[in-house]
Design goal:
This protein is an alpha/beta fold. The protein contains six helices and 14 strands.
């Protein structure tokens, strides 16, 4: 069994992504790792080279600045990296996603288990979305709780918006992949970067969605969806994490938005009916 890891990056250091930690977190179970680095304004390319691992293959690329529809340029860049993978499985990580070292044997075992099972096209991970600081995560139907990050390279798949996979049925039709659980978790750290980095990112990338993003203020959020993280962080990310104590403190006078009210109702329904209303970009079959 051959495993390919892949990701795409641009201005990742400027925007405060833990992209080196992300790559290193799954490198031990990868036979190759494809990194598509877009021409940018910082030293992201140099930082990737400094990892200095023979399994890493770097593709240098330019982004299409005229592509300003629904973030499709992200799908293009993800696909460039994906289509250069030569393994049986392709393992994708966003630049702010990290895997715990304890989960690596579990993930590899799941890939081996389903390698020859034609009914399984992808593997799904549970997600922990950290928010504000390293001790706080979000639990809300508005934030996806599970998503596929590993897909078979024999499956005709692509990623229209850069994040999720779709499987092509024919030239006109597509569906989400049929997936089994990987038994593992992905830790999402993007929302504990400082606000300056987050706002800089949004100002720079808004044009790819043809919109202007509002300034981010981390304290303006429904405190009811914030939970205390009591487990251990991956070893590779610990030095990157900003110091913090306790649950992230929000604005006590925050006024709930219409979307936040909708999510509160969703949480109530989930509790009553023991269900999960978060978005699922896969069909769980096992």
């Amino acid at each position: 069994m051959k495993v390919s890891g892949f990701t795409f990056l641009r201005n990742a250091h400027l925007f405060g992504y833990p992209f080196v930690q992300s790559i290193k977190s799954i490198l031990p179970i990868c036979d190759e790792f494809i990194v598509n680095v877009g021409e940018g304004e910082d030293d992201t390319l140099e930082k990737v080279k400094e990892i200095d691992d023979p399994r890493i293959c770097i593709i240098q690329n330019r982004w299409n600045e005229n592509m300003r529809t629904k973030g499709y340029v992200y799908g293009q860049q993800k696909s460039i990296a994906h289509f250069n993978c030569t393994g049986d499985w392709a393992f994708y990580l966003e630049a702010d996603e990290v895997v715990h070292e304890n989960d690596l044997p579990v993930i590899k075992s799941a890939m081996q288990k389903y390698l020859d099972d034609d009914g399984v096209e992808a593997l799904v991970f549970d997600f922990v979305h950290f928010y504000g600081n390293k001790n706080t995560y979000i639990w809300s139907p508005g934030w996806y709780r599970r998503a596929p990050r590993i897909i078979k390279n024999s499956v005709p798949s692509c990623s229209p918006d850069g994040l999720f996979f779709i499987v092509m049925i024919d030239k006109k039709h597509w569906r989400y992949p049929r997936a089994a659980s990987s038994g593992a978790t992905i830790y999402h750290y993007g929302w504990i970067r400082n606000e300056d980095q987050m706002n800089l990112k949004f100002r720079k990338i808004g044009k790819y969605w043809n919109k202007i993003n509002n300034e981010v203020n981390y304290t303006e959020i429904d405190a009811g969806i914030l939970k205390t993280f009591k487990e251990s962080h991956p070893e590779v990310i610990k030095d990157w994490l900003p110091d913090a104590e306790g649950l992230y403190r929000t604005n006590p006078h925050h006024v709930l938005t219409l979307k936040e009210k909708k999510h509160r109702i969703g949480l109530f329904i989930e509790k009553i009916f023991t269900t999960d209303l978060s978005k699922k970009h896969f069909k769980l079959i096992k």
